[in-house]
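Box 4.2: Ligand-aware structure prediction
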Amino acid sequence: MTAKILILPGDGIGPEIVAEAAKVLECLRQDHGLDATLDYGLLGGGAVDALGEPYPEATRRQARAADAILLGAVGGPQWEALDRPLRPERGLLAIRADLELFANLRPAMLYPQLASASSLKPDLVAGLDLLIVRELNGDLYFGQPRGIRTLDNGEREGFNTMCYRESEIERIARVAFAAARQRARRVCSVDKANVLETSELWREVVTRVAGEYPDVALSHQYVDNAAMQLVRAPKQFDVIVTGNLFGDILSDCASMLTGSIGLLPSASLDARGKGLYEPIHGSAPDIAGQGVANPLATILSAAMLLRHTLDKPEQAERIERAVGQVLDQGLRTLDIMADGMTPVGTQAMGDAVVAAL
Ligand code: NAD
């Protein structure tokens, strides 16, 4: 059946990097038998300008009808002064909530060609290949009540609610164990069970779910220790599963182990495997329109889309091999430049990947 892919270029460098990923998908469509249609829609600041909302009804309909979505990035200084509900980033939260995208998969793998770009010593990161599975629909980011209130003595107090239901923990744990089965069969669950009741339940439920996956080894770490271990000995991890807040922080930390934010893709999946795929970086307004952004994270997001939602692992590998080849050829955008190399622009990088395909 023909798969429907919705492309949301977004703001800033979004349209530039997405154009290169679309070229790659077009190439697979025309030359390698990918049966898919590509449709385009608006999300973020551009959607506010055109239709008055960051996640307009038209996009909602397109997103619900699509099998998978590829997003560039949203946001920029020109929309920062808007009321909160109109800010581009709200569009992102809205589409995640609307499509119930509860599982955020963030691989952090080091291309051997880029070992010197990591902030850690090369021997600590050589061969690094870890996957962070972050719960995306719960925790402090969505828990009620929340707000800023004024106390009897006139002082103001900010408050949020950390909460997880058993069913929410079970479903994210299953995603992590299933992912581990495709990898090195190790899951490390990260929590703060020594202090937080929410984490106490998290640990209990993850341990129970582990019983369904006897072939996968489960370990637990407190989040403070996990943060330390990520920069001390990151290769000890295969799959890390954690809640929304801890995952937000740890996944950004893990991304830097690989040297560049411009290289890492991500997936946000619902219970049926439908997903929104996007690079982990933002809209980079500082370099937007200059043709220098690295499109590889977005191109690799398209590979994840083919693997996780369209079940086309061979097409995904084709893209990943092509990216490896262009790095082997010494092609580098500015963010991953090393001494003695000549930088290429966004389009030239995309063209090189297509040529390698
Ligand atoms: P950012 O990720 O956009 O940029 C951080 C730094 O990394 C910048 O110096 C930028 O030039 C560089 N960079 C990012 N992507 C790059 C690429 N592909 N190639 C080369 N260099 C790249 O983060 P920020 O500056 O904190 O945020 C900018 C805007 O993006 C804000 O409006 C923010 O809200 C938004 N944002 C959106 C998303 C998303 O859409 N998922 C995620 C994070 C931030």
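In the box above, the bound molecule is nicotinamide-adenine-dinucleotide. The first helix runs from residue 14 to 31.
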